[in-house]
């Protein structure tokens, strides 16, 4: 970005001059010029807290069960939407989303702000934001592994066993995927790097699960234990 600061990036189309934008929206995701994702995170967190304030007003009227359903519909769904783009971000960047999730858990269980939130997340069996991102990456890799995804997605994952250079090696007998070489943290946030890395970190027995429903259950249990124990 600093290298482009002194360059005129405007486009002239007919009589109109189009200036570059620092933030653009794509499928509801805000992408800033430096891909820090801070604007997107802050926007999502702001919307979530707005919905939580509205739901708090009716908490006593509708009860815990209906409150939980509303929180899932208006808050948790927003936290999970396109959360793969948050892979590899610093914890300080995704902290607003974690605060929103914590507030949602406190609202459902009727806790005060000063109450410790970790037992609440465990009681609701909610993965923290960082682990929800990893869950989504692994789930998408499972669809690649089982060939239940579009071609544009399957082209981003290459099994180690399919590499001719790996034939005869011990790694060719596993269900692991190649992780491309990257220079810098920005490249490590790409799906082609983050998703295989997340998949390779799973226990080998998860790689061989044939049923998606069972894989999701075992995956969440594994990540839940990693997050809290």
How would you describe this structure to a colleague?
The chain is mostly helical. The protein folds into 2 domains: 25-126, no CATH class; 132-228, no CATH class. Helices cover 54% and strands 6% of the residues. It contains 10 helices and 4 strands; from the N terminus they run ββββαααααααααα. The chain has helices at 38-56, 59-80, 91-109, 118-124, 129-145, 151-154, 185-188, 191-200, 204-207, 212-228, and strands at 11-13, 16-18, 23-26, 29-32. It has a two-stranded antiparallel ribbon. Strands 3-4 form a two-stranded antiparallel sheet. A hairpin with a 2-residue loop joins β1 and β2 (16-18).
Strand element count = 4
Identify the overall geometry.
Answer: flat
As a whole number of angstroms, the C-alpha radius of gyration is 21 Å
Global mean pLDDT: 89
The structural domain count equals: 2
Q: Major sheet: size, sense and barrel closure?
A: 2 strands, antiparallel
Give the oligomer, counting copies of the same chain as homo and different chains as hetero: single chain
Percent helix, as a range, is 40-55%
Helix segment count? 10
CA-CA gap between termini: 41 Å
DSSP strand content: 5-15%
- Helix/strand order, N-terminal first: EEEEHHHHHHHHHH
Low-pLDDT parts are none
Strand order in the largest sheet: 1-2
Structural class: mainly alpha
Summary tags:
mainly alpha; two-stranded antiparallel sheet; 229 residues
Annotate the secondary structure layout:
Elements: E1 11-13, E2 16-18, E3 23-26, E4 29-32, H1 38-56, H2 59-80, H3 91-109, H4 118-124, H5 129-145, H6 151-154, H7 185-188, H8 191-200, H9 204-207, H10 212-228
Antiparallel strand pairs: 1-2, 3-4
Helix pairs in contact: 1-2, 1-3, 2-3, 3-4, 5-8, 5-10
């Amino acid at each position: 970005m600093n290298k482009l600061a002194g360059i005129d990036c405007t486009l002239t189309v007919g009589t109109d001059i189009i200036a570059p934008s620092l933030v653009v929206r794509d499928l509801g995701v805000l992408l800033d010029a430096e891909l820090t994702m801070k604007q997107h995170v802050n926007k999502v967190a702001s919307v979530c807290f707005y919905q939580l304030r509205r739901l708090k007003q009716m908490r006593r009227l509708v009860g815990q069960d209906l409150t939980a359903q509303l929180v899932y519909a208006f808050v948790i769904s927003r936290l999970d939407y396109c959360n793969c783009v948050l892979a590899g971000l610093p914890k300080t960047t995704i902290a607003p989303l974690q605060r929103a999730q914590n507030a949602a858990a406190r609202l459902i269980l009727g806790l005060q702000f000063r109450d410790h939130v970790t037992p609440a997340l465990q009681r609701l069996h909610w993965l923290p934001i960082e682990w929800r991102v990893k869950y989504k990456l692994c789930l998408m890799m499972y669809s690649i592994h089982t060939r239940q995804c579009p071609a544009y997605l399957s082209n981003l994952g290459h099994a180690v066993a399919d590499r001719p250079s790996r034939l005869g090696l011990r790694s060719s007998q596993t269900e692991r995927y190649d992780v491309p070489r990257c220079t810098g943290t920005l490249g490590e946030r790409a799906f082609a790097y983050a998703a295989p890395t997340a998949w390779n970190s799973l226990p080998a027995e998860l790689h061989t699960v044939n049923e998606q429903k069972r894989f999701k259950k075992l995956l969440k249990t594994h990540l839940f234990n990693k997050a809290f124990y």
